[in-house]
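queue> pop job 88
queue> type: inverse folding (structure -> sequence)
queue> payload:
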């Protein structure tokens, strides 16, 4: 039951708010007496759980119905839980499945999608994510709901000269999908991706991102921060120079930031950018966990100082 409550609470949290869309067709419907989000359920099949970094897996999902998702949309993903036998399934996952006809579920962010497929990046952090990561091709899945504003849609390209995507861990998944979509649009502003990981082995899609950077040198650049070696991005002024170490010229008023991942990182950067004078509509966020972490005031000050230094010419290559 706790897992179910966490799922429903997540849909009401800062991480899973903004717009909600109703699918065009339905099979079954989920509802509860206390009024949590309702969503129609659609049938799908796991094509592959692809390991893309240490502990990170991209779930490639084929859908039976035509779908319309974009990178950054949040949906509910379900998989039938294994039969509980002793300690095979933890209590949270087991209780959640019991409340949902034997299907465990949780909110996940879309990395990319076509009209008949969805990709979702997951990090193995508990029993449920482990079960998704080891699921075999052909495993039946269900999904539904459409929450949050997609990353690309949330950026006003008319007033933006540069986009900065700041992610931690698997938050990079939706960023990759958004970058791929943005590169298809000739008028989309250039993008800097700053992706934070604990170790180098955890880096996701390095070769793919290097290829995108080479093919779109005038539109896309990316860097990885390894916290076990460098410390957190906000821990030093030197680390935060990554915000201004760019080939794409922009100022405080025309740079859009998308923050996605660890709640402490998101909260500190959001506060720092606000302190620097970045307008609210130039900052979009999604928190995955650690929502109640205490904000480091010194980190906020360092972030504010770094963001305020954006009125500079592009760094020469």
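queue> result:
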């Amino acid at each position: 039951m706790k897992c179910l409550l966490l799922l429903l609470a997540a849909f009401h949290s800062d991480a899973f708010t903004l717009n909600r869309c109703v699918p065009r067709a339905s099979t079954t419907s989920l509802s509860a007496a206390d009024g949590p989000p309702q969503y129609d359920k659609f049938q799908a099949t796991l094509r592959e759980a692809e390991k893309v970094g240490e502990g990170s897996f991209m779930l490639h999902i084929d859908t039976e119905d035509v779908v319309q998702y974009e990178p950054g949309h949040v949906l509910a993903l379900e998989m039938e839980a294994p039969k509980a036998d002793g300690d095979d399934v933890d209590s949270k996952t087991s209780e959640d499945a019991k409340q949902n006809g034997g299907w465990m579920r949780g909110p996940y962010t879309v990395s990319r999608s076509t009209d008949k497929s969805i990709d979702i990046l997951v990090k193995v952090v508990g029993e449920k994510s482990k079960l998704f990561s080891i699921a075999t091709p052909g495993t039946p899945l269900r999904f539904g709901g459409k929450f949050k504003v997609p990353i690309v849609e949330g950026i006003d390209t008319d007033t933006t000269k540069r986009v900065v995507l700041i992610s931690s861990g698997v938050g990079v998944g939706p960023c990759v999908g958004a970058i791929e979509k943005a590169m298809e649009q000739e008028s989309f502003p250039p993008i800097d991706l700053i992706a934070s990981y604990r170790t180098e082995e955890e880096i996701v899609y390095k070769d793919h991102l290097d290829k995108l950077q080479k093919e779109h040198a005038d539109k896309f650049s990316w860097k990885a921060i390894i916290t076990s070696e460098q410390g957190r991005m906000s821990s030093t002024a030197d680390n935060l120079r990554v915000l201004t170490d760019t080939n794409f010229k922009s100022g405080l008023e025309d740079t859009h930031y998308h923050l996605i991942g660890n709640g402490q990182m998101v909260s500190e950067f959001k506060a720092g950018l606000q302190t620097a004078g970045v307008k609210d509509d130039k900052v979009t966020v999604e928190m995955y966990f650690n929502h109640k972490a205490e904000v480091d005031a010194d980190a906020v000050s360092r972030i504010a100082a770094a963001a305020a230094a954006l009125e500079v010419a592009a760094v020469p290559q």
